[in-house]
Design goal:
By secondary structure, this protein is α/β, with parallel strands linked by helices. The protein folds into two domains: 81 residues, Urease, subunit C, domain 1; 298 residues, Metal-dependent hydrolases (TIM Barrel), CATH 3.20.20.140. Helices cover 34% and strands 22% of the residues. Helix 12 packs antiparallel against helix 13. The longest helix has 18 residues. The protein is globular and about 75 Å long. It starts with a strand and ends with a strand.
Length: 394
């Protein structure tokens, strides 16, 4: 047994413990006790400055794109980014696998214990089977708003889904890619596969042209589809926003991870929360800066008391795979967000979104993982923007 006392322990089961002590089995990660009274803890107690938090949850990642690290320049915009990813899909399989192995190891070293991972292929299957990280794989499907292509594309992604389901013990579900790439027909076929209560994920309102497409059938996505030889002449949406289109075809009983939300308005947030209490707003701040050089307005989400969680997106759209670095970015650029809220976004909210209730909380008889954040604490208060490092304890 190892016992560590920190200035603050964020347990996510109540108020943070000031000068709290957590005892755990180093081999299994099992939490043996959580207390603030040294007299109740047998043996030696190590003392560290800073904060101890549960293991991080990466609610949105594209592990299979790890081989594209540094291949796509930053700041080119979403549509250019999508075009480049399509163009760069052909790599030697050995190179892809080695990059996936490195990325999985990077996340583990960075204190990430669970990942909501987007997969279009089975490239990540073998790594996930042996990983120390728990993955929920979202097999992502799209038909580029072409109903005549739905059956063909769905069959391809359904085969990927069955491979993960039959060959991995980690959870898996099918998910739509984004409103601008998924027809009503594809939404319906995805719904037929998934249980009514499983988590699903969809990219949401990452770019202003997304809403332009659904409000007025105009904008850069029209040009994008023209550039790949597809017409949207048949597409006549009757929606106020891309999100209203999305929610009209998804199921409110599911944990729905809306990812990016860069352009989401207060009205969008109210609409989604009235649609379902199981909506989780997943932010990937460094990826937003990498691709579009802008962030969501987090105050809109704070004012409506919604469930936020944090993702890294992919190595193609980020400088690293570290939830700790995402937390620091949020605090650096939008300091209005309370530090304890950010910790919850990075831990318990992500665990809840993925249906992994055994994670995200520091409590007896759980194995949530533990991370130490090296940061100055004064009277129980800390500032993540000044944190020096995060270290995995177990």
């Amino acid at each position: 047994m190892r016992s560590i006392q920190a200035d603050v322990i964020v347990t996510n089961t109540g108020n943070p413990l000031i000068n709290g002590i957590v005892s755990f089995d180093e081999n299994t990660g099992l939490i043996i006790s959580v207390d603030s009274d040294p007299g109740k803890v047998p043996g030696t107690i190590e003392k560290v400055s800073g904060v101890i938090v549960p293991g991080y949850i990466n609610a949105h990642c594209h592990l299979e794109l790890s081989h594209l690290s540094a291949f796509i320049p930053s700041g080119t915009g979403l549509i250019d980014f999508i075009s480049r990813v399509i163009q760069l899909r052909s790599f030697p399989q050995e190179e892809i696998q080695n990059a996936i192995i490195r990325a999985d190891h990077e996340m583990y070293q960075n204190g990430i214990v669970a990942v909501g991972d987007i997969s279009n292929t089975t490239d990540t299957l073998e790594v996930k089977k042996s990983s120390e990280i728990i993955y929920h794989t979202f097999v992502e499907a799209f038909d580029l708003l072409q109903p005549e292509l739905t059956s063909q594309h769905f069959d391809t992604y359904h085969k990927v889904f069955l491979e993960f389901k039959n060959k991995s013990s980690d959870p898996v579900s099918m998910s739509p890619h984004a409103p601008y790439s998924v027809s009503e027909k594809m939404f319906k076929q995805i719904n037929e596969i998934n249980p009514a209560d499983c988590p699903v994920s969809i990219h949401n309102q990452e770019h202003k042209d997304e809403d332009d497409l659904f409000r007025d059938t105009k904008g850069a996505f029209i040009d994008f589809y023209d550039s790949i030889g597809l017409s949207l002449d048949h597409f006549h949406p009757k929606h106020n926003s891309s999100l209203s289109y999305t929610l009209s075809f998804m199921r409110p009983s599911q944990h729905t991870l809306l990812v990016h939300n860069t352009m989401s308005t207060s009205a969008d947030i109210r609409m989604a929360m009235s649609w379902s209490p199981y909506v989780f707003w997943t932010t990937c701040p460094n990826a937003n800066l990498y691709i579009e050089n802008q962030l969501p307005k987090y105050q809109r989400f704070l004012s409506q008391d919604v469930k936020m969680c944090i993702g890294t997106d992919s190595r193609a759209s980020n400088w690293q795979l570290s939830i700790f670095e995402e937390m620091k970015t949020i605090k650096k650029y939008q300091s209005v967000v309370p530090d304890l809220d950010i910790v919850r976004w990075a831990t318990i909210n992500g665990a809840e979104a993925l249906g992994m209730d055994h994670l995200g909380r520091i409590a007896t008889d759980l194995r949530p993982g533990l991370n130490h954040i090296d940061v100055e604490v004064r009277d129980g208060v800390f500032d993540l923007s000044t944190a020096l490092r995060s270290t995995r304890l177990v």
